[in-house]
Amino acid sequence: MDGSMKRRDFIKSATFAGAATMLGEGLSGIGQVAAQSKTAIKPVVISSQNGLKATARAMEMIKEGNDALDAVIACVNIVEDDPNDMSVGYGGLPNEEGVVELDSSVMHGPTGRGGAVAAIRNIKNPSKVARLVMERTDHVLIVGEGALRFAKAHGFKEEDLLTKESREVWLKWKETMSTDDDWLPPHDLDSKDIGEGLKSAIRTTGTINCNAVDLKGNISGVTTTSGLAWKIPGRVGDSPILGAGLYVNNEVGAAGSTGRGEANLLACSSVMIVEYMSQGKSPEQACLMACERIARQTKMKRLLDDQGRPKFNVNFYAINKRGEYGGAAIWSGPRFAVNTGEVESRLESCAYLYKREARN
User: Fold this and answer.
1) Domains parsed from the chain with CATH numbers
2) Handedness of CA 271, 326, 134, 84 (dihedral sign)
């Protein structure tokens, strides 16, 4: 599928004046989507690119009759446990003080419940803790020291999450950071050359999002991350915020995100994507609409290029009740992992708003 064709199809199929109208209509389209979904159930697992191998395990579990939530959490646990993945869990890149802080959220479609933890330290699998918040408390989100105490009360063991490799990358940043951090001088709408425009090549916003439809047609999702590398301690991005980094409606579908969490927090994109799908948009179209929403909403010139486009990227992944899936990003290049029942998962390219020029 060609990305430029997707962009043209998107423009023809949806305008954002129409999107505004749809929002005014609320959830009236959900019944239509639910009615259309009463066909043969097509299980599917979709995730960000770093879940390529893990999505195969999730599909294997679904074929064995497991609930979608069990499958997606098992999927991301593989990445959380991988010391070579510096964006999630063990080996994740730390905050500016060299401490790994993790965020995660889960949503279970059949029960309409969700749980999340943010800025939790010394616990390798925040996705498992987020599930316990959902299942064993009357809360949705627990943060910081409270999240750590809650995890320990349920038998999780504290451990140092920095690996030799992630510590070396952090030390390199400390030695060369100069103005390459999140502390900004006084600035206004027209300020440039501060903050995001100075991010170094080793800065990362890696995350894994995974969503699935199981054999019963039920939908669940999870997002987990070590967050933005070198962040100010206590910074929380979109990943543990339901409606931003993850959202599930069992009658419609699910959506999640990776990329610049601050932009997605301001746009609450995942709940918007599910709402767009409830109005009949395909997962890919809905993801593109969320990208356009962020592009229109970003006004600080320090975050924009000379053509007024966001310098950063945000990626979205979505599935609907019918087992259809899609992904989109502000800038071309990202891919996502998908498994529709095969032994091995595959990567597909995200649709995009802007094509990134090839570098010489």
Assistant:
1) 3-354 (3.60.20.30)
2) negative
